Amino acid sequence: MIEQIYNYFTIEMLYYWVNFGVLPFWLVLIFFPQSHLCRYFVTSIFPIFVLSGTYIFVLYKSYLNSYDFIGNFNLYFGINDLSNLFSEKNFLMMFWIHFIAINLFTGGWIVKDAQKFSINKMILIVPLVVTYLIGPLGLFLYWLIRIIYAKNISLYD
Predict the structure, then answer these.
(1) N or C: lower Cβ tally within 10 Å for the chain?
(2) When comparing pLDDT for 75 and 60, which is higher?
(3) Are 72 and 82 in contact (CB under 8 A)?
């Protein structure tokens, strides 16, 4: 049975599971940010734990396929080396899980921080959707909204 599960989760299948698997978390963040479900299930360590497990599984599959992990450090040598790394599906999947996890963590932080300043959840919809799609831009949009609600600019918090 474990062999069947292992064979089922190819890189392509993991890609679909990761993409569809984070959607419920984002829907709860966007539509029910003040619920207990959001507090205990979405903005907790649970989704990061699940994505970390997936990341470890990809690392394990890569190790079994004799993936050159040392070659990952070539990404610091130039844009062409980075482009070559992205042609490798295992590296691309590791990057994608990293991207999804960081964006989800950022979305959770936005919701928690917005609750401290009593920011209307309807206003949060745009920065949360943008964070889901383009992480840093969504965080920047939230920061602009936060300045208006907090009535001051804070470069650290």
Answers:
(1) N
(2) 60
(3) no
Q: Six-digit token pair at 63?
A: 């190790």
In the numeric block, which tokens belong to residue 121? 């959840």
Domains of the chain: total? 1
Is residue 155 in some structural domain? no
DSSP assigned state of 152: S
Per the CB < 8 A criterion, the answer to whether 51 and 96 are in contact is no
CB 90 within 8 A of CB 65: yes
Q: What tens digit of pLDDT does each residue of 38-54 get?
A: 888 888 889 999 999 99
Give the C-alpha separation, 133 to 30, whole Å. 13
Domain limits for position 57: 2-150
Report the distance separating Cα 57 and Cα 156, nearest Å: 36
Nearest-angstrom CA–CA distance, 80 and 75: 8
